[in-house]
Amino acid sequence: MHLRVAKRILRYVKGTVNYDVKFEKCQNFKLCGFSDSDYAGSIDDMKSISGYYFNLGLSIFSWCSKKQETVAQSTIEAEFIAATTTVNQALWLKKFTCDLHMQQKEKKDNIEIFVDNKATIAISYNLVFHGKTKYSNVKLFFLREVR
């Protein structure tokens, strides 16, 4: 089995020898994050998988893909958990960049977080609670507070 895996790795390396990584100089070091989740992505326990990454300029420098600790009962809940994790990381990165004297000068140091679920975005902006969103009150209030 190990020999088969080693051969596969060598075939991959052989097939990607001509691929290049392009580095460009970037004057705009805007920090922004992207969040996503895979609803019930784990077949073993039906837990969702959250993922995020952060760009600084043109480069991805922070990323994570992790199984969520609880079972989400809907796609919106899975996306909320992913968004909350992403915002927590964004707050830490903001403090970290301030320690390095790399504060963003645009938009009052806001870090944009992009979420691909329209329902999650709409509910996070809507100040009226509905019965269907009651399960995620804590995460929702947290996301509204840091907005």
Structure notes:
The protein has 147 residues and is α+β, with helices and mostly antiparallel strands. A hairpin with a 2-residue loop joins strand 2 (49-56) and strand 3 (59-67). The mean pLDDT is 82. Strands 3-2-1-4 form a 4-stranded mixed beta sheet. Helices cover 39% and strands 20% of the residues. The chain is built from 4 helices and 4 strands. Helix 2 (75-99) runs parallel beside helix 4 (137-146).
Quick gist of this model?
The protein is of the alpha+beta class and 147 residues long.
**Taking strands numbered 1, 2, ... along the chain, how are they ordered across the largest sheet?**
3-2-1-4
Which outline best applies? flat
Q: Which consecutive residue ranges, at least 5 long each, have pLDDT under 50?
A: none
What is the N-to-C order of secondary-structure elements (H for helix, E for strand)?
HEEEHEHH
What is the share of helical residues?
25-40%
Structural class comes to: alpha+beta
Residue share in β-strands: 15-25%
Notable traits:
alpha+beta; 4-stranded mixed beta sheet; 4 helices; flat
Write the layout of secondary structure elements.
Blueprint: H1 2-15, E1 31-38, E2 49-56, E3 59-67, H2 75-99, E4 112-115, H3 118-125, H4 137-146
Parallel strand pairs: 1-4
Antiparallel strand pairs: 1-2, 2-3
Helix pairs in contact: 2-4
